[in-house]
Design a protein that fits this description.
binds NADPH dihydro-nicotinamide-adenine-dinucleotide phosphate; globular; single chain; Rossmann fold; 10 strands; alpha/beta
């Protein structure tokens, strides 16, 4: 089965749109970009379009090329203090001379849509969205007792993915570039999440027939998009998400839903402060 992301993403966006309408919410997303990376421009546009479809106001802040880390920091501080801004995204990557790590931590946790700051209220959107895809196609308790392998240990995808799968009672192995014999783990896996940025890394001979593969990778080769799994040869023996059209749309839908969740959190905190 091909695990398409769009129907799952559409369902999340539809629920979000209805909730915003019913509660007459006025929400706003601010995306800060460097304006220099063409792929980032596409991702930012997708996020803004999804916000628009749900009635969330949005602003794209394209920083001048000459901007320094200090200039970005000033912009983040401004948005942190702007009562009209519900959520902030710092669209990565930024130019190499900008200190991304330092800037991420400057985003107020209650406005951190991506879930990248150390004090984030929610996990990063990509792994959270992957759980939603698995719940949609497999059912809520499916992961319990499963052997899961995550390939890639970044702080925004692989590592939080391993934590989330563990929280669903899967037995999780986290592989990375120093794992000597990855097939030893993947061959025995019921579910594999591959997030390495290495096109077609996961091959047919590495997996068990009937397993489920979630392909996070986005690799552009000669203008075409490829995932980290060898989709052509895996689709007949596994359930697999396509690239494009799998995890990508779900990440975007998750971050739109996240804006509503952040707004709820802020309101809950305010009402608790009032009763204290
Ligand atoms: P990073 O580059 O931060 O991390 C890559 C990870 O893969 C590292 O842990 C690295 O290991 C591991 N790795 C690299 N090569 C191999 C290998 N040959 N065997 C095993 N492990 C390997 O990438 P991200 O996690 O940020 O992103 C991964 C991919 O997912 C990218 O293609 C990115 O574009 C895509 N992505 C897609 C999203 C979506 O919404 N669809 C969202 C976010 C990312 P080590 O730690 O040892 O270096």
């Amino acid at each position: 089965m091909i695990l398409q992301g769009k129907p799952v993403a559409d369902a999340v966006l539809e629920r979000t749109r209805a909730y915003i309408q019913q509660n007459n919410l006025k929400l706003k997303l601010a995306i800060i970009t460097s304006g220099t990376d063409p792929a980032s421009a596409i991702y930012a546009r997708n996020k803004m379009n999804a916000c628009a479809s749900c009635g969330i106001d949005h602003e794209l802040i394209s920083m001048p090329e000459s901007s320094t880390t200090k200039d970005y920091a000033k912009m983040i501080a401004h948005l942190n203090n702007d009562p009209k801004t519900t959520g902030i995204i710092l669209q990565l990557p930024l130019p190499s001379f900008i200190n991304e790590k330092q800037l991420i931590e400057l985003i107020a946790p209650e406005k951190d849509v991506d879930g990248f700051t150390k004090k984030a209220k929610f996990p990063p959107c990509t792994p959270a969205g992957i759980l939603t895809i698995l719940d949609y196609y497999k059912g809520k308790n499916w992961l319990e007792g499963k052997n899961a392998v995550v390939i890639g240990r970044s702080s925004i995808v692989g590592s939080p993915m391993a934590t989330l799968l563990t929280s669903r009672n899967a037995t999780v192995t986290l592989c990375h570039s120093k794992t000597p014999d990855m097939t030893y783990y993947t061959k025995n896996a019921d579910v594999i999440v591959v997030a390495t940025g290495k096109a077609k890394l996961l091959k047919k001979e590495m997996v068990k027939e009937g397993s489920t593969i979630i392909d996070v990778g986005i690799n552009r080769i000669d203008g075409k998009l490829y995932g980290d799994a060898d989709f052509e040869n895996l689709q007949d023996i596994c359930d697999i998400t396509p690239v494009p059209g799998g995890v990508g749309p779900m990440t975007v839908a998750t971050l739109v839903a996240r804006i509503v969740m952040l707004d709820k959190e802020v309101k809950k905190q305010k009402s608790q402060e009032k009763t204290m």
